[in-house]
Specification:
The protein has helices at about 1-10, 20-35, 45-55, 70-80, 85-90. The protein has 2 domains: about 1-35; about 40-100, no CATH class. The protein is mostly helical and about 100 residues long. Helix content is about 60%, strand content about 0%.
């Protein structure tokens, strides 16, 4: 991660929000949590996620299937899908529709 920060820190230093190292650490924790909590998904959805990742040249290791949903969301955004549409395609809400 240090190499990535060193490579891109200058390009991102004037962007609004948190520093690059903070964002990357938070993403790492979130993706690891998704991998730990992962219990499987329907085969059809797995094929869709595999294709999204493959379309931009991302290879997802077998032990990272939990975080693949988030990775596929980033792949959609990279391909030009609006972030809100990518969130909806991933079946994620910023504000939950249903509150428990």
């Amino acid at each position: 991660m240090k190499e990535v920060i060193k490579k891109y820190e200058h390009e991102t230093e004037n962007l609004p929000g948190y520093k690059l190292d903070y964002i990357l650490c938070a993403l790492k924790w979130i993706l690891e949590q998704e991998d730990i909590n992962f219990r499987g998904r329907p085969e059809k959805l797995q094929r869709i996620l595999d294709e999204k990742c493959k379309s931009v040249g991302v290879s997802v290791p077998g032990n990272r299937k939990g975080s693949q949903l988030a990775i596929a969301l980033f792949c959609d955004i990279f391909r030009g899908v609006h972030p809100v549409e990518a969130l909806l395609a991933a079946n994620l809400d910023i504000i939950p529709k249903f509150r428990g």
